[in-house]
Write a structure and sequence with these properties.
Strand order of the largest sheet: 3-2-1-4-5-7-6
Mean pLDDT: 92
Shape: globular
Number of helices: 10
CATH topology: Rossmann fold
CATH class: Alpha Beta
Radius of gyration: 18 Å
Strand content: 15-25%
Number of strands: 7
Number of domains: 1
Oligomer: single chain
CATH architecture: 3-Layer(aba) Sandwich
Distance between the termini: 35 Å
Largest sheet: 7 strands, mixed
Order of helices and strands: HHHEHEHEEHEHHEHHE
Low-confidence stretches: none
CATH superfamily: Vaccinia Virus protein VP39
Structural class: alpha/beta
């Protein structure tokens, strides 16, 4: 069995058997990400309305489509893939009575089997960091039509504090996942135009303080609001991107 096959097997097992323990990080995110989720939603709303309407769309995953697309646009067709049958089932469960065609495939995103230039858009939420990014993006490039769009929301792993936290809390993620670093950006830029929005640096620190004060409630407080406002300013300073926790990447096939 190849190394990639072994990784795929572990990923499949983790998602099929629901092995992740994320209750701790979810409480922090509800504080730290409270306002950035709203900003993220505004950015996604604009991008999706501009690129998804009446288009043939591929999601790498099988569930994000419902929150990203529903009540925003009506694509021509949505195709969803996942390596985990359990995760695929989550998508099919909410895909009833939709005003557009949607289909699901049990498929490895590292080895897309679709024909060349089949899709107008390929997107995914927190999926690239579970994959061989270069191999997957080669396939994404192949299946996209000329000028087709990509849209991915991914975690980052360049801030030393986040790296320490990840090592201390291994049960929150699968063993082989790898949040994005500088070299991954270079891979993306090889085949796609590269635009981005960075989220969550100071807001994580303020969110931690807020969680300690308020517990898992009152997320819309002054600490979280202040952290978010500082982040919006800092995210515009190019060399500070390495400090942030998440990135929204979008662009077109070159």
């Amino acid at each position: 069995m190849s190394k990639l096959d072994q990784i795929n097997q572990r990923e499949r097992e983790y998602w099929d058997e629901n092995k992740l323990e994320r209750s701790k990080i979810k409480k922090l995110r509800r504080h730290a990400y409270y306002y950035s989720y709203k900003r993220q939603d505004r950015v996604l709303d604009k991008l999706i309305r501009e690129t998804f309407e009446d288009k043939n769309v591929l999601e790498l995953g099988s569930h994000e489509w419902i929150s990203w697309i529903k009540n925003r646009v009506i694509p021509k067709k949505v195709t969803c893939i996942n390596i985990s049958q359990a995760e695929l089932n989550k998508g099919t469960e909410v895909a009833k009575a939709l005003p557009f065609e949607i289909e699901f495939h049990l498929m490895d995103a590292n080895e897309l089997t679709f024909k060349d230039e089949e899709f107008d858009v390929v997107y995914g939420g927190a999926i690239l960091h579970h994959l061989d990014i270069e191999k997957t993006l080669n396939h994404v490039y192949r299946v996209l039509k000329p000028g087709g769009y990509i849209l991915f929301l991914e975690p980052l792993n360049m801030n030393p504090i986040y790296r320490v936290y990840r090592r201390m809390n291994p049960k929150e993620r699968t063993p082989d996942e790898h949040a994005l670093i500088r070299s991954d950006f270079k891979i993306i830029k090889n085949k796609f135009t590269f635009q981005h929005e960075f989220f969550d640096f100071v807001s994580v620190i303020f969110g931690f303080i807020s969680l300690k004060i308020f517990g898992d409630k009152k997320h819309n407080n002054i600490f979280n609001k202040l952290g978010h406002r500082i982040d919006v300013i800092l995210s515009k300073i190019p060399f500070l991107y390495v400090l942030f926790a998440r990135v929204l990447i979008y662009g077109q096939k070159k």
